[in-house]
Amino acid sequence: MKSKKPYKRTDRVGNQILSILGDVLIKYIDLSHIGFVTFTHVDIAPDLRTAKVFYSILNPKMTKEKARIELNHKRKAFKKFMSPELTIKHTPDLKFYHDDSLEYGEKIDRLFHDLSLKEKDDYKH
């Protein structure tokens, strides 16, 4: 039986996990010693047993590698608090990855800004 829903189950479960993790981060797990952590995206395996959680950090207080290690040490705690909220049979195992897309976007913005400044200088001469 084909589903009439506009997107896949993995997308819906991923969005649910993203929302739950945000709540868990606010209510139960303090990561202020890392910086301001936000979860940006969740990729969940088709069997719903594992999930890659992407995060970004504003005002980081440690290196990216140390922050990744620290977050991955908290995987069991996140899973414990997430489990009662999740509406699927098995709670997926989590693995955290740094999301570089924000930094990449900022780099592109800087390049465009520098390019526009160069063009303005070229018009003046």
Overview of the molecule:
This protein has helices spanning 9-27, 64-73, 75-82, 101-124, and strands spanning 36-44, 50-58, 93-98. The longest helix is centred in the C-terminal third of the chain and has 24 residues, at 101-124. A three-stranded mixed β-sheet has the order 1-2-3. The protein has four helices and three strands. The protein has a single domain, classed as GMP Synthetase, Chain A, domain 3 (2-Layer Sandwich). The termini are far apart. The chain is of the alpha+beta class and 125 residues long. The mean pLDDT is 87.
SS content category: alpha+beta
Unreliable spans: none
Q: Helicity level, as a percent range? A: 40-55%
Give the number of helices: 4
**Rough shape?**
extended
Please tell me the total number of domains.
1
Please list the strands of the largest sheet in the order they lie side by side.
1-2-3
The largest pleated sheet is described as: 3 strands, mixed
What is the number of E strands? Answer: 3
Query: At the first level of CATH, what is the class?
Result: Alpha Beta
- Briefly note the CATH topology name: GMP Synthetase, Chain A, domain 3
How far apart the termini lie comes to: 68 Å
Q: Quick one: CATH superfamily?
A: K homology (KH) domain
Beta fraction = 15-25%
Name given to the CATH architecture: 2-Layer Sandwich
User: Measured on Cα atoms, how large is the radius of gyration?
Assistant: 19 Å
Mean pLDDT: 87
> Would you list the SSEs in sequence order as H and E?
HEEHHEH
